[in-house]
Amino acid sequence: MKVRSLVAAVAVSAFTLPAFAKDIVQTAQDNGSFNTLVVALKEAGLVDTLKGKGPFTVFAPTDAAFAKIPKDQLDALLKDKAKLTKVLTYHVVPGMVLAKDVKPGMVKTVEGQSITIKAEGGKVMADNSVVTMTDVKADNGVIHVIDTVIMPKS
């Protein structure tokens, strides 16, 4: 009788466990439009960071955004861990900033420099990129999709 009670308790608890939420990296990976970004995060050693507690706001370039960079330059960037880390952390803002909370102006990135957020011609811009989708939520932050890889000033 004790074994049945234990089995019943395990079965009940298995159904009451909360579902695991997805972190920023898993959310990007599952989307299918951020394959190059995920590869770059792996090359830079930033996967564990963006799987961490956060929260983070990521201005995430799509595969099409990365495709705007000439192949030889992109290949060189992916091989230069220090420069790649600088570029990728330039796309990350500490904290969770939803679209409704974004105000035009300078926003400091994890890299240390600031990106410029502005509204222009009915579009929201992050530096020279257009934000094409906002508020893709993850359990440790939010992704705003951008159409161009943004580069730090120096």
Can you tag this structure with a few keywords?
seven-stranded mixed sheet, 154 residues, 7 strands, FAS1 domain, alpha+beta
> Helical percent range?
25-40%
Classified in CATH, the superfamily is FAS1 domain
Identify the overall geometry: globular
Strands ordered across the widest β-sheet: 2-1-7-6-5-4-3
Which second-level CATH architecture applies?
Roll
Number of strands: 7
Overall structural domain count: 1
Question: Low-confidence stretches at least 5 residues in length (pLDDT < 50)?
Answer: 1-20
Mean pLDDT: 86
Helix-strand string: HHHHEHHHEEEEEE
User: How is the biggest beta sheet arranged?
Assistant: 7 strands, mixed
Distance between the termini: 71 Å
Strand content: 25-35%
Rg over C-alpha atoms, rounded to the nearest angstrom: 19 Å
CATH topology: FAS1 domain
Question: What is the highest CATH level, the class?
Answer: Mainly Beta
- Oligomeric state as shown: single chain
Please work out how many helical segments DSSP would assign.
7
Structural class by helix and strand composition: alpha+beta
